[in-house]
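Tutorial sheet, problem 5. The two components below are modelled jointly, 646 residues in total.
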Amino acid sequence: MIEDRAAMGPEDSAPEPTPEEVQRPPGPARYRWYVLAAVVVALLALPLFRPMISSYNYVLTLGALILMWVAMSSSWNILGGYAGYISLGHSVFMGVGGYVAGVLLYYHGISPFLTALLGGLAAVALGFLAGFITLRTRGPAFIISTIALLFMFLLMTDNFEYLGGAAGLPLPPLEVPQEWLRVPFYYAMLFIAFGAVWTSYRVAHSKFGMGLRAISEDETKAEVAGVPTRLYKISAFAMSAFWVGVAGGIYGYSIAFIRPTVFFTIAISAQMVLMAIIGGKGTVAGPVLGAVLIYAINEFSLVVFGATEFNIVIQGTILVAVLLFFPLGVVGTLRKMNRLPAFLNWD
Amino acid sequence: MTNVIQVAILGLLLGGVYALMAAGLTLAFGVMRIVNLAHAAFIIASAYISFFAFDKLGIDPLLSVVFVMPIMFFFGIAVYQALFRRIEGSAKFGEMTVLLTFGIAIMVEGLLGFVFTGIYRKAQPGYANESFIVDGLFLPEGDILFIPKGQFFASLLSIVLLVGLWAFLRYSQTGYAIRATTQNRAAAEIVGVNVRRVSAISFGLSTALAGASGALMSYLFPFFPFRHWQWVAVLLALVVLGGMGSMKGAVIGALVLGVASSFVVDQIGPTWGPMTFYLALFLILLIRPQGLFGKEVPV
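Model answer (structure tokens):
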């Protein structure tokens, strides 16, 4: 991958070229832009088809959740996929976003639709701080410290009265007629998902992204080649926190409460990791595809097996199987076989 | 003064058990560079075996070590052969093991929850709620010290097992091979060590230690399937703190932090106990990223 990128020449330092110039897709590959446009239009228009959707609120809730997972796994991918630094504590950023927006709403009555971005910035700040400390280590020790970070926040939110302790804080619901209640959340999540995927895409096609991939391939060599590894890694950590934090702010509002066990749980991090890996970590389209896939599997197994622990077993099994048999994920494996459809090829 | 001694004793007893739990983790990392996120899940699974052996058959949890350890030993070897052998040559082995064991941990957690449900369990052997009472000695007149019997026996067993492990690594042929592999895998292979066999045995030993820890956990700490995340976070913090792969580091780290957390619990409150480990982890990463006794590990 690195070689391909290097062969593309000096566009990295030049003003950002449009994606077409970078990729120069041969004739048929151009249709990926039409596919993208169609998907975007369909997603934007979905809430307009109210009379034609039988369980309108359910569909929009589902859509909003899938979009949230798309955003979160794409963000995770910036650090875990491009830079190869696996974070198993990324839900900490979702929690920080959720709590910042939630607390501002609870105590000051400011809508999370305004403050979610603030939550994202708080997550970025935490990302910088945590990255500064944890990125002194590589590999396993880094992964472990991200888990410790998550549990620290779980413990703190569990025990601070101001934040509602273990019971959390109830949030006043959005004052919108019941039948339209899900629409704002849907559009908010759609915006977040766009933002996250766009960020991921821009990172993938920048000098910064190339540096991250170099770090992932061989950090020592990257360092020798002049990549400011420490700066890049910390920036990647902070950047991958932003949209997760924003999503957390909106999510807390949409379920009308914030509680430590809703956000600061390793299960949420596990989902991000699973989605990115099954889709293909280190690719732009992978986490998007993975989010849709895993979410579909979850819903399916909920319907078939009911809300039992069996869901968890299925997820663990999928993760193990994917790692053992096709660690590159769907997108990576298809690319290796030269069978990757152009509309999934955004790298 | 007496209170300080009391808290320190409780901390040391706790640290002894933590040391046993962390020893298994650090062994797997030292020999095979496997970061086993499923270690605590294995501990909880073993705790269920001991719990039901006590509950249904009346077998003492401390005695159950006799069969829990062999079961977990062979289980570990099976897991190693089935899963880790496949990723041996992969480029990012360290990361792969973390993700793979992450998946295994989720599977074990789900299975345990599916079979045993999520309710709290705790075996209640007679000694679990009794204490030795120490008075006289050097203590001020009228003061007494409590030494909980359950914790005391647990630490004793843990010391026996750790000394046994040390002796095995130090004096047996296999132990020699394990240490050689820990030091330099490639060189060990060149001088004729069957690295795969050694790895399988070490992983089995590591899970057997998880088994023993589980037997202790079954009556020391209330457990349920989801609990393993909290445990693994604490144990991993310990292992990083001591220096990944360093047995000495894990044991000393466990004892020191056992005492420290015991004081935190006494002074600030029981809920803040685990915070000691996380804070210590971040502090040590700031000051000495390779841990107390760690060498710079090529990952």
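Marking note: Chain B has eleven helices and two strands. Full credit if you identified this.
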